[in-house]
Write a structure and sequence with these properties.
Its cofactor is Zn(2+); Co(2+). By secondary structure, this protein is an alpha/beta fold. The protein has helices at about 5-15, 15-25, 40-50, 115-135, 160-165, 215-225, 240-255, 300-315, 335-350, 365-370, 395-415, and strands at about 55-60, 65-70, 80-85, 105, 110, 140-150, 170-175, 185-190, 190-200, 265-275, 285-295, 320-325, 330, 355-360, 375, 390-395.
């Protein structure tokens, strides 16, 4: 039996089932916050049960369900297919051209919140795993679906919660996060999120700035000072520098926006500012939330230390409190088997050159690497619509991704 050929043929025959699965997953409004994944989890459990696959359920927080489903035979290799069921909130519904949770299929796209990040990729993983089971493919190792409820707000109750408790482990992992169709992401930047609260002295608004000490004005000075974090110079190892150069070239030629400068610079985003009580009162307090991403060659703790120094330089002495997550940049070398085989599978599916690149954001991949599990990310997406209004994913990429997932499992695990 040529299982590679058989799987590709079956996926072509069952495209409508795959697209319907994507649509149904999008119809569950699993926004995080609040992070209630009970309904979508039940649907996935039932879908897998129909294919003869059982599911272990682990509730990490109220209404947040981690799902673990395994097929194949015990062997030397155990491949993890990972995806998350939560999505970012849809936001202002009046700015959508279609219902964000309608799961509509139109003009070659699947439409809705989470289409690209990452319900279409998740559907591909589920569909490929169920197909392997339905066809009775005699895998020589184990393949596990590792579906988590929490990624969009930091992921504390998802991948790290499961791995730290030893509920599952593996020898390699594929995450269905959005990527270019020819370029899986094999490394991510680090992260140093923090918040600080500036205090002032209240007074009557009619007397400012002659009387009172505005916390908002002091926070404005702090925000301006923090922009200098981008001037930090990384010391990048030679092997990573080569991959950064490749990724920069990819970004210049293929990304909608040229984000090449982001790869080797610290970035700073002032996400929220909360201060003051009303317009005619000098603000006595102002809290600022900051999202900083950290390149290879800089430790996130050094970024926090530099942020503290910059704030003191403008007279703002505050505590930098952690929010979100903190980690250093990390990657899986392109020489790892799982990377080589997934890249090879992309070329097998469409006959075009494929290679891994670094991602300018941060993801759950770091948790797998912290546990010694080689991992990369690959999933269908219209990248410009991620976390945006009118999110969508191209159907041709959805089908290609499902084929790549199936072939990668075959190549990595082998058949008996």
């Amino acid at each position: 039996m040529d299982w590679n050929k058989r799987l590709l043929e079956e996926i072509d025959k069952r495209q409508d089932e795959l697209i319907d699965l994507c649509s149904k997953l999008i119809q569950f409004p699993s926004e995080n916050p609040p992070g209630d994944t009970r309904d979508i989890s039940k649907f996935i459990i039932d879908y897998l049960q129909e294919a003869g696959i059982g599911t272990d359920v682990h509730e990490s927080a109220p209404n947040m369900l981690n799902l673990l489903s395994t097929i194949g035979a015990e062997g030397e290799k155990h491949l993890l297919f990972c995806g998350h069921t939560d999505v970012v909130p849809a936001g202002d519904l009046s700015r959508w051209d279609f219902p964000p949770f309608g799961g509509l299929v139109r003009d070659g796209y699947i439409l809705g919140r989470g289409a690209s990040d990452m319900k279409c990729g998740l559907a591909g993983l589920i569909f490929a795993t169920a197909l392997l089971k339905r066809l009775g493919v005699p895998l020589a190792g184990q393949l596990s679906l590792f579906i988590v409820p929490d990624e969009e707000t930091g992921g504390h109750y998802g991948v790290p919660w499961v791995l730290e408790r030893g509920l599952i482990t593996g020898t390699a992992a594929v995450i269905a996060e959005p990527s270019s169709p020819q370029h899986p992401t094999i490394g991510q930047k680090g992260s140093a999120w923090f918040e600080f609260t500036v205090e002032g002295t209240p007074g009557h608004g009619s007397l400012s700035p002659f009387k009172g000490d505005s916390a908002i004005l002091k926070a404005a000075k702090a925000i301006e000072a923090l922009q200098k974090l981008t001037e930090m110079k990384p010391t990048i190892p030679a092997d990573v520098q080569e991959m950064i150069d490749i990724s920069k070239e990819y970004a210049r030629k293929r990304e909608v926006l040229d984000v090449s400068d982001v790869y080797d610079h610290v970035t700073v985003n002032i996400g929220t500012i909360h201060g003051g009580t009303k317009a005619n009162v000098v603000a006595d307090k102002c809290t600022v939330e900051v999202d900083s991403r950290v390149p290879f060659g800089i430790d996130y703790r050094d970024v926090l230390a530099e942020a503290k120094r910059l704030l003191l330089e403008v007279g703002v002495d505050v505590e930098l409190k952690p929010i979100g997550f903190r980690a250093n940049a990390n990657w899986t070398p392109p020489t790892e088997d799982i990377v080589k085989l997934l890249v090879e599978s992309i070329t097998d599916v469409n006959g075009q050159e494929a290679y891994g690149v670094l991602q300018w954001a941060t993801s759950d991949a770091r948790h797998f690497r912290n546990h010694g599990i080689p991992v990369l990310q690959y999933g269908p997406a219209e990248l410009s619509t991620i976390h945006n209004f009118n999110e969508r994913a191209p159907i041709d990429q959805v089908v290609q991704a499902a084929k790549v997932y199936a072939l990668t499992a075959l190549k990595y695990l082998g058949v008996k």
